[in-house]
Every structure is written in C-alpha cells, then in structure tokens.
Amino acid sequence: GLSGPRVEVSGAPIGAPTTLQVSASSDPPITLSWTAPAGSPTSYDIKRSEVSGAEVSIGTSATTSYADTSALPGMRYFYVVSARKFGEGPNSGRVNKRLRPAAPTGVSVVGDRISAMLSWAASSGAVSYSVHRGTVSGAHPRNFGNVVSPFVDTWLVEGQRYYWVVRARNAAGG
User: Fold this and answer.
1) What's the predicted TM-score (pTM) here?
2) Strands 105-111 and 95-98, how do they pair?
3) How far is Cα 64 from Cα 46, in angstroms, rounded to an integer?
4) Which among 12, 57, 71, 8 has a CA at the least distance from the CA of 37?
C-alpha cells in the first residue's frame, strides 16, 4: 500500500456565477462576461447550445470573460457558465444571442435601359434577403424586402445611375 501522510482536500461547494452578460454586437465573436461567485474559483466552464437547456461545454476560462470565436453568422446560441473549485458548481443564469447572417458575396448587376438583374451567393445563416436602391452612393431609400437571387428591379428610369445594397436577414429579421 501507500505510506506517508494522508492529505485530504475539501472545501465548501462553489456557487454559480452571476450577472452573465453577452456582448451587444451582432457579429462574431460573441463575448461573455460574468461576476465570480464567493470562494475564489480556479476556472470556469463555458457551455453553449442552439436549444435552450441543452448547453454543453465549449471551453474554459481562468477569468470572468470568454470570447466564443467558433460562433457562426446567422445562428442563435444559448449560454451558461459554471465555476470550478474542488469540482464544478451550478450553472449561471442563461443568456442567448442571435448573430446577423454573413453579408452576401458575389453580388453582380446586369441591366438594360429600364431594368437590372441582381444576383448573389447565399449567405451563411440567411433566411431571406432585402435589396436597397438609391441614386446616391450610401443612400438607399427604396427597399425591396424578402427577395431571392436573382432579383429583377424593373422600376428604373432610363439614363439614371443607381446604387444597390443586398442585405441578408436571419429568422429574427436582423
């Protein structure tokens, strides 16, 4: 058997982190921050899922913040955090964040005198698209919502210069 002095390590159970917050930005990465529970935790487990209540560990942190760099555009994620010290404590309250979809790529315009056909590649996380048109770069007051690629704009005036912006939308409209 083993010989020598016997050492036992024990401590009071660690509490749950409080005031879990998620970054205001709707673009990746998602940044989480929280308040440490009493008892000086040694680390934190960060848990995430796409369904509330099904969170699984995605990483650890030695501080009271974490940047989820694996979050994908257009997705909605739920998060909880637990503290560790002599084992894992209970989960924090749950927060969630929906990221905006990636911007459409490969946008092209082919036109004639009074119409233009816009096309683009699908965006990760997009469920719909909107096309915005204007006659001044940066100002696009005409909005065509819930369109698909290719989109044909037939309300053009011959000889007028036009500018378009294509935006991807997620299920929440963002």
Assistant:
1) 0.73
2) unpaired
3) 10
4) 12
Type of residue at 7: V
- The model's pLDDT over 61-72, given as tens digits with 9 standing for 90+, comes to 999 999 999 998
Contact 74, 170 (CB under 8 A): yes
Distance CA 98, CA 105 (A): 21
At 87-139, the pLDDT tens digits run 999 999 999 998 888 889 999 999 888 899 999 998 888 888 999 999 998 88
Q: How far from 93 is each of 21, 22, 30, 88, CA to CA, in Å?
A: 10, 12, 17, 15
Are 65 and 81 spatial neighbours (Cβ–Cβ below 8 Å)?
no
Report d(CA 132, CA 101) in Å as an integer.
17
| The token pair that represents 18 in the structure block | 């409080």
